[in-house]
Amino acid sequence: MATVLERPDASPTPSSATDVPLLKRPRSLDGFWGWLTTVDHKRIGILYGGTSLIFFLLGGFEALLIRTQLAQPDNHLLSADAYNQVFTMHGTTMIFLVVMPLSAAFFNYLTPLMIGARDVAFPRLNALSYWIFLMGGLFLYSSFLLGGAPDGGWFGYAPNTSITFSPGHNIDFWVFGLQILGIASTVGAVNLITTVLNLRAPGMTLMRMPIFVWMTLVANFLLLFAMPVITVALFLLMFDRQFGANFFNPGMGGDPVLWQHLFWLFGHPEVYILILPAMGIVSEILPVFSRKPLFGYPVMVFSGIAIGFMGWGVWAHHMFAVGLGPVAVSAFSISTMFIAVPTGVKIFNWIGTMWGGSLRFRTPMLFAIGFIAMFTIGGLSGVTHSISPHDRQQTDTYYIVAHFHYVLFGGSMFGLMGGFYYWWPKVFGYMLSEKIGRWHFWTWLIGFNLAFAPMHWMGLQGMPRRIYTYPKDLGLSLPNLVSTIGAFTIAVSTLIFITNIVTSHRKKTPAPNDPWDARTLEWTIPSPTPHYNFAEVPIVHSVDDFWHRKYTEDENGRLVALPKPPTEASTGGLSDTEESGHGIHLPSPSFYPLIVAVGFPIIAYSMIYKIYPVAVIGGLVMLAGFYGWTLEPSAEPEPEHHAVEEPAELVAAAAVPALEAGNEPAAEPPAEEGGDQ
Amino acid sequence: MSPRNTRPRKGAFFLLLTLVALVASGCARGKLPQDTLSPVGPEAIKLDHLFKPVFAVAVVVFVLVNTLIITCIVRFRAKSDDDAPVQVHGNAKLEIGWTVVPAAILLVIGVFTVFSVLDVNKRASGSDVLTVKVVGHQWWWEYDYPDLGITTANELHIPTGRMVQLEMTSADVIHSFWPPKLAGKLDVVPGRVNYMKLSATEPGDFSGQCAEYCGLSHANMRLRVIADSPSDFDAWVANQQKPSVPPTGDATVDDAVAGSELFVARGCSGCHTINGLAGAAGKVGPNLTHLQTRSHFAGAIFPLDEKSLRRWLRDPPGMKPMNPDNGQGMPNLGLSEADITKLIAYLETLK
């Protein structure tokens, strides 16, 4: 239980922030400092979303540079060196600084709301995860100003990334930047898994969880196990580069192929980390806009879990041209083929959800349908990679570039965009424009296909990836030009999206609690979400609980609206919740997560430039942060203690982390006694 | 909030426009030099026979899925906000069906794939097999014919009708040897040897390039495989086996003679071998003994002519991105125009 783990007053020494005032506890929830010290999962979600959208613009700008360079053969807009930096940073940005944190934005904001909780299990860890992510991103991008960005590709294959072949600091920024980002992801994964497993509202069994929460759970388990693998790989590479170790140096008995195994053992689960959240979002949107339940909810859950498991057994399909030998190649071909089965099940179940429904083509639905169509293309080209002998024609060509953009853009980005339109009213309290939204969708769809469909052709016609230029003789000037036009169409589409945000923000068409006639708990509460989420912790009776409060079925299975209950106000009426919300005790803001996070880039810079005393300073900053954190209660006691006055339902809801009123397991020993000296 | 707030015609129009653009870009097809879809070598043809049926299955599934999606969009459009569709929660039979049927299709594909994997990985055997050692370098290819005593670069000559066994490794980072019309790519990994079969049934000049990102000039690491008829191949071998004959005469009059002296004096010989020229035994760069028998140089990217050679000798890293300060590629030797003229005159004798 969260409060126990986080709470220092379980220690023998009675303490509060007043005893050890490293820093005065921030009080204000508003303004600049309010955002800087927030531990509210909703604000952290918004910070994640906003930051990753800015990185999306940066990564998109890099994509435009790439496509402008390749618009015609023998182009010299970018030097080879600049191009290599740009394509490396495009991939690294889009994966680590865009799709992962965008998914984290949805995890953070929605998971507590969808399971009927008031916050995540560890609110300050949540803040820590965001700040470390931000530091990692800024650190990585600072390389552009400090002599050159990473240029070894997002995959950083040894021995090209060794000090022998890449003597500059470029790769160092990548090695340390990704380690920092990995810590952020791991911290976030621990937090979200604990939240989902421990903080569900009464009655919400695992098989009553919204499918998005299920996919969040699976994706975070993947993160939890995948991030250590890349961390080990990066750690070894760091030792090779910083301290003259030889893990990947064949000249000294090291093995560059070891790097590939480690990288892809992380890298393939990573693909599912990137796509499962979007699958979850689409699985929420489709039922709402079809007025039908998700087709085969249990099958959707188990196929998600199956993908999560099987995702660990397919990594070597990235290495079919490495020369692994027939046994390994056959085994990984077969496993790769069969991971298509649960994925295919999902696609057919989504269609089954729409089939026979009453489809409303609002913007979220457009993106969700776009997801199914585009992701199917990516999935099918994936199956063509699994025939490993022919993969030796496909791999490292634009055919692969086409494939994974159909998965990560046609899949993840379509799903996440649908999620933006769908939950925007809940988050900000106003609707995004449907009209501009449709423009956004159609330009997005067309631009995407113009940019990436020709790449299938380019790859099969022999154009390798990661080349800064190509000769006219290759005969691929026209498809390259079309692709570039597509990339700029996507840029225009992104501007349309930004326009939508700006104009909708000005107009502020107020959003009702439940603008889409939706199914899950977050739509029972006001828009925007109040600070405390739920005035009363909901009791859950079924999957899609909110829907079943509104509708039932007749004997033929047809939808029948229930009369609106007179007490509807209690689940969302403002006056009532304001009153109820008054007694709810939430975690207090804290400086310490930010302070701890600041230590990481300080250490990384000092390691890169080999000024080790500065690393000690960075370590001390982190230590100070941890010290203050440990001695600070997760929630400040309020002047008048509320525990006894709190409504019975609230006390009963062990789900709520901030409720300090003695509901921790009695057997839990204080932390000091539990540990060995 | 009207349920009819999208116009399907408009959407269809845009989709059509996209399709037209895609087809237009696809029509750029001629006989492109690195086309994997029209393979020529038997090894590549085998791969193609695996790919095309699987691709066809994929297209069928794509059409099926999209037909279903479009049917949903057309048939099940909301009529009013109060529609009361039947609440179907799932269908076990259907779901088992679309689990088992794709699995069965994949199983069939899997069987063919495994047989193909075994075949591709089998090494060539027999007395007729020609062995060539391939070594990847940043950013050019070295080919050694151990049984014939030949070392050459970038342009690989093979005889038609004979199986060629490539034994491949790298001198620095990982590269990938890929002649698309003849065979699928295979990485060259430092510290490992990979084996690849290569054969051609008809003479031809097949373009290819390095397919694994190998640093700065990865884009400029191209290659050619030249399939010669057996008699042409034998003639090529006979010529390659001869050492070069250094030009003789008065260095003040004959540029080629002066060039051969400069080749050693300016340090070219420290990196490049020229059989027959005393002191030229460097192993860092390509063997230049029969330079003029190649059509291109510097990673098979520049046509081998006087103009390109002159540009190259003026400033190699300016012509092809390289990093000679870190031992990656040829440095600018600061040669005078006169020296360049002499060196080219000598290089032109290397037939």
General description of the model:
The complex is a heterodimer of chains A (677) and B (351). Chain A has 677 residues and is mainly alpha-helical. In chain A, 61% of the residues lie in helices and 1% in strands. Chain A has helices spanning 2-6, 31-36, 41-69, 80-115, 123-142, 170-198, 211-243, 256-290, 297-310, 326-354, 363-386, 388-394, 398-428, 434-460, 477-507, 545-550, 574-582, 592-608, 612-630, 648-652, 671-674; strands at residues 551-553, 559-561. In chain A, strands 1-2 form a two-stranded antiparallel sheet. The longest helix of chain A is centred in the first third of the chain and has 36 residues, at 80-115. Chain B has a 5-stranded mixed beta sheet. In chain B, strands 4-10-9 form a 3-stranded mixed beta sheet. A two-stranded antiparallel ribbon of chain B has the order 6-7. The model of chain B is unreliable at 1-6 (pLDDT under 50). At the A-B interface, helix 4, helix 8, helix 9, helix 10 and helix 11 of A face helix 1, helix 2, helix 3 and strand 9 of B.
Write out key terms for the chains shown.
heterodimer, A: 677 residues, mainly alpha, two-stranded antiparallel ribbon, 21 helices, 61% helix, 1% strand, B: 351 residues, alpha+beta, three-stranded mixed beta sheet, 17% strand, elongated, disordered N terminus
